[in-house]
Amino acid sequence: AEVKKIAVIAGDGIGPEVVNEAIKVLKRVEELYGYRFEFEHGLFGGIAIDEKGTPLPDETLQMCRSADAVLLGAVGGPKWDNNPKELRPETGLLGIRKELGLFSNLRPAVVFDCLIEASTLKREVLEGTDLIVVRELTGGIYFGDKFRREGPGGEEAVDTSVYSVMEVERIVRQAFEIARKRRKKLASVDKANVLETSRLWRETVNRIAPEYPDVELEHILVDNCAMQLLRRPASFDVIVTENMFGDILSDEAAMLTGSIGMLASASLGEGSFGLYEPVHGSAPDIAGKGIANPLATILSAAMMLRYTFNYADAADSIEKAVQDVLNAGHRTADIAVDSSKAISTEQMGSLVAEHM
Amino acid sequence: AEVKKIAVIAGDGIGPEVVNEAIKVLKRVEELYGYRFEFEHGLFGGIAIDEKGTPLPDETLQMCRSADAVLLGAVGGPKWDNNPKELRPETGLLGIRKELGLFSNLRPAVVFDCLIEASTLKREVLEGTDLIVVRELTGGIYFGDKFRREGPGGEEAVDTSVYSVMEVERIVRQAFEIARKRRKKLASVDKANVLETSRLWRETVNRIAPEYPDVELEHILVDNCAMQLLRRPASFDVIVTENMFGDILSDEAAMLTGSIGMLASASLGEGSFGLYEPVHGSAPDIAGKGIANPLATILSAAMMLRYTFNYADAADSIEKAVQDVLNAGHRTADIAVDSSKAISTEQMGSLVAEHM
Ligand SMILES: CC(C)[C@H](C(=O)O)[C@@H](O)C(=O)O
Ligand SMILES: CC(C)[C@H](C(=O)O)[C@@H](O)C(=O)O
Fold it and tell me: Looking at the domain that runs over B1-102+269-356, which CATH code has it been given?
């Protein structure tokens, strides 16, 4: 088989540990399915600040550009939190999204039945929850002009949110396509009663909708969506929204499931290229101890196989192995009921590889 | 006693019904405590659009300006949803906030123990939840420049978010004062890792904080706050944030409690003037049926007595009466377990008045 190049940027905190287990599982995919991967490693985030003086070194960016997909661990930590903007890990994250044109962030929030008790929501409300937030990732208030100026009320700060029809069209079309392959329901989230960008968003959604008559479309205001996610999470299928709202709602949706250590994400651009990373952060408090949960990163690798490489067989096999390992009662400390029985990061990775 | 002028803008849907019961309770306050109120009624929202061609007629605004406080029912409904911007009820709401200088929106989210089962959250997570969101209400992306323009990606829409030091200072100071009268914990919510307005916000909070050494301050990113509200709602006391984040988080917090029909709000400016309204909407589907829950509006009237008039005795008495009526098992349809036993809007108002 053709060799696929995977750029690995393990990052900070538990990043390297969890990424190692995802690589272990990808190597098992090579053995079982005959696919071929080549891994290249680069510096990114806090460690890149320390070693190269910038969170996103040029060589890392070049490495990602020449790869077929990127596997990211996690970035950040208290060490860099008070750095000036250019020397903060988040700046690298925003930079890599923009530079690689990753305009779409897919954030599935799935409830694992055997972990449902970990949620703060009641079982009967949560049961059957399987939604995906499609967040626009390179526009809006994240990337518009930002500055300070003098005003009548003293110093003022300004942020600008901009969306073009083109930017809305491409993310909305992608969301419709994803809905078509799922339960055929799309909720478009905006604040059209207040924002001009939201009115453009809603007009664009309505213009595209007739191309997808098989998908049931609902417009929902962002404040109401924050409520409905709590009230009827299982009723959502695909949620599409702009960058800032998506940041908030995708994290709310993740927390609903109770298993944030289990959630994967994909950031996609045009074509099949994508960056894959766990939803959880770098967890500096447990870094280096070998106890982090690698499943979110392993499931991110499965998303890579599915979305970038089109290896659905291998992706299915990983996802099923994760289920089987959980059903067999294996738990890392973060999801263990009895922490004395918790297994290590490495053990969890090996168990998934064995169950494939 | 001095006569206090209350401007009543009942609005649309169930607005008039629930406002009537709040007035009934305020009249009972006059009898019991010797306070004196004068009620003046004005058109606002959809009904004002129908009758006057604008959601916020000048005479309504004048009436509010010459009053000591405003009692608002609810505005909006499907009838006006597709109107152009100037003819939409929300435009009246944004207009009245700006015109009356109501820069602070207080949104308590309290769990009523006897209604705790109505929440989708587990009892043990929710127990003891008693937080208040202090939302900035006249700045940020709601009121900054909004426009369309041509760009390289076709038509573009632009929204601008602006905050001055003065705007942040006054709301943050108010939040610190409120925290001081409660459990002395303040969470300031921003997105300082991305937004310039948030960086100004955080700097300003940090500059003011030493004036309140007795209040424990926490900075929390908006995406994380959306998660922590779900994970540990009872740990929050006062949450202060900018307009757009406050819109989303205050509704999320409201829904947590499971009793959105019970939640009151106050919008305050400089001095003691305030506008008081229930958190729930106009509920057009049940309007005119006499079955709406008036408790949120009654509790909003209690907030008016507390914050604008400083009649803590009467406010306490209303709040206690509401508790007693609920503890005695009386329920309107929205909170009834057995809907055949539900009482009417009027009955609920009378019961509260009797229990005072
Ligand atoms: C770290 C931060 C800039 C980032 C964002 O807001 O996009 C993070 O919260 C995320 O969601 O990936
Ligand atoms: C109707 C709308 C403009 C308003 C807002 O976003 O402020 C509402 O959601 C609220 O919270 O009072």
Answer: 3.40.718.10
* Mean of the per-residue pLDDT values of chain A: 96
What DSSP line would sit under A51-67, residue for residue?
HHSSSS-HHHHHHHHTS
Rounding to the nearest 10 degrees, give the CA dihedral for residues B175, B177, B178, B181: 160
Does the beta carbon of B263 sit less than 6 angstroms from any atom of ligand 2?
no
- What is the distance between the alpha carbons of residues A59 and B348, in angstroms, rounded to a whole number? 69
CB of A137 within 8 A of CB of A105? yes
Architecture of domain A103-263: 3-Layer(aba) Sandwich (3.40)
Distance CA B166, CA B99 (A): 18
* Residue % of chain B over a pLDDT of 90: 94
Q: Give the C-alpha separation, B8 to B37, whole Å.
A: 12
* Residue B101 C-beta-side C-alpha neighbours within 13 Å: 8
- Asked about B145 being catalytic, the answer comes back as no
Residue B87: other Cβ atoms inside 10 A: 16
pLDDT at A259 over 90: no
Q: Which residues contact B151 (CB under 8 A, 6 or more apart)?
A: A162, A164
Check residues B236 and B152 and name the one with the higher pLDDT: B236
Please say if B251 is a catalytic residue: yes
In whole angstroms, what is the distance from residue B160 CA to residue B202 CA?
Answer: 19
Nearest alpha carbon, ligand 2 atom 10: B247
B51 has pLDDT over 90:
yes
Superfamily of domain B104-260: Isopropylmalate Dehydrogenase (3.40.718.10)
**A158 and B223: CB-CB below 8 Å?**
no
What are the boundaries of each domain within chain A? 1-102+269-356, 103-263
Residue type, A314: A
CA distance B6 to A346: 67
Q: Select the residue of B125, B151, B154 nearest A120 (Cβ to Cβ).
A: B125
Judged by CB atoms closer than 8 Å, whether chains meet at A154 and B165 is answered as: yes
Q: How far apart are CA B27 and CA B12, in angstroms?
A: 23
| Partner-chain contact A161 B162, CB within 8 Å | no
Residues of chain B positioned with their CB less than 8 A from the CB of A146: 195-196
Angle formed by the axes of helices B15-33 and B345-355, to 10°?
20
The two beta strands, A216-221 and A185-190, are parallel
Residue partners of B202: CB distance under 8 A and separation at least 6: B188, B190, B192, B219
CA distance B316 to A320: 57
B77 is in an annotated binding site: yes
Give the mean pLDDT of B270-289. Answer: 96
Q: What pLDDT band is residue A17 in, cutting at 50, 70 and 90?
A: very high
Query: Which residue's CA is minimally distant from atom 1 of ligand 2?
Result: B90
pLDDT tier at B12, thresholds 50, 70, 90: very high
pLDDT tens for B209-268 read: 999 999 999 999 999 999 999 999 999 999 999 999 999 999 999 999 998 889 999 999
CA distances from B273 to B7, B95, B266, B308 (A): 11, 16, 10, 6
Atom 12 of ligand 2, residue of closest alpha carbon: B247
Residue B113 in this model has a pLDDT that exceeds 90: no
User: Same fold for the domain at B1-102+269-356 and the one at B104-260?
Assistant: yes
Written as six digits, the tokens of B54 are 């604008």
